[in-house]
Design goal:
Distance between the termini: 32 Å
Strand order of the largest sheet: 2-3-1-4-5
Helix content: 40-55%
Order of helices and strands: EHEEEHHEHHHHH
CATH superfamily: P-loop containing nucleotide triphosphate hydrolases
Number of helices: 8
Number of domains: 1
Largest sheet: 5 strands, parallel
Length: 220
């Protein structure tokens, strides 16, 4: 494998990419998930990872919520994932609720969403629209493109990570065990509110247009 750094907006499909890549590359896949305390992962939260054997790493650059976040290093190869803001924010809120059950009322949701759309804008500005020319060209993958052409996109991603031509049979085996499909329905969200969602999208409208991402009102 060629070591690469994964930078992603939460709920953009990183998990399924990681699992398919692990099945394809086997023991050569050495993973770092920022903040993880699982024994099989390094969780150093550093870019680059402190483990010299690391071949793939995950980081959401949450420092952008309050500062400039982690530096973009010319020495790193970046795989960058993003997703339309409303759907990524709603999906991330489901995770947030697990650790903040006592706070989860509509007002908490709205505060969370407004913080998240600010972070979403800063992530897109830094990692997608403003990526420096002097750094190695990253591989970009939107969640929407991963859903629309999962096998084609996964082959592209595995080829980016690989230091050898892909083994087509091994790719097929790795992919068959993990179908890629959306897990949640936006209309079932407990605080579903098209007017509020449109306000969130308005705050990100220029970036949505630049990335050609669908509105929350469009089905995948």
């Amino acid at each position: 494998m060629r070591p690469s750094q994964g930078m992603s907006i939460p709920r953009s499909g990183h998990g399924v990419v990681q699992r398919v890549a692990k099945r394809y590359f086997g023991d050569t896949f050495v993973y770092c998930a920022a903040g993880s305390n699982k024994q099989e992962h390094c969780g150093c939260d550093a870019v680059p990872c402190i483990n010299p054997a690391r071949t793939f790493a995950k980081n959401h650059d949450f420092g952008l919520q309050t500062s400039s976040g982690v530096p973009i290093l010319p020495s790193e190869r970046y795989f960058i994932q993003y997703r339309s803001p409303v759907r990524s924010i709603v999906s991330n809120y489901h995770l947030y609720k697990k650790n903040h059950r006592d706070e989860c009322a509509r007002a908490d949701w709205e505060s969370f969403a407004l913080r998240e759309v600010f972070y979403w804008n800063r992530f897109v500005d830094k990692w997608v629209l403003g990526f420096p020319e002097e750094a190695a060209s990253p591989l970009y993958c939107s969640y929407e493109s991963l859903l629309s052409a999962p096998e084609a996109r996964m082959r592209e991603i595995l080829a980016f990570m690989s230091d050898a031509p892909l083994d087509d049979e091994a790719v097929t085996r790795a992919f068959e065990r993990r179908p890629i499909a959306p897990r949640d329905r936006l209309a079932q969200f407990e605080y579903y509110d098209p007017a509020f969602f449109r306000m969130l999208e308005d705050a990100a409208s220029e970036r949505l247009a630049a990335l050609d991402l669908p509105s929350f009102e469009e089905e995948h």
